[in-house]
Amino acid sequence: MTDQSPRQLISSGGAFEAVYGYSRAVAQGEWVHVSGTCAPAGHEKSDCYTQAKAALDIIGRALEGVGASFADTVRTTVFLRDINDAEEVARAHAEVFGTVRPASTLVQVVSMMRPWQKVEIELTAQRGGYSA
Predict the structure, then answer these.
(1) Domain that holds residue 94
(2) pLDDT for res 5
């Protein structure tokens, strides 16, 4: 059976959304998919922890826009430019998801859209799917 609930598209106003034709988040039915999210301009000199927290703030607002929260997260994927930053990102991730404990993958990548970006995070959530 196909889910016929309306599709919700959330924009964060990021520069690449219109250029590449994507949404920050898409929700349909109980599922929410949040696109890969990096720290915005203004974080050019920030460490990886601070960039991860900035990305998570954007993701949190996108989730709120579709009536979800970090507690609904079932999976995250974290992309790092330098695997040596894994501990910094793990700290930021644990601060947000420590009790939720979603499935998660962390991989090192060669590059990001902007040369100063160190981390990108995407996630999938199921609205109403978790209660602590």
Answers:
(1) 7-126
(2) 76
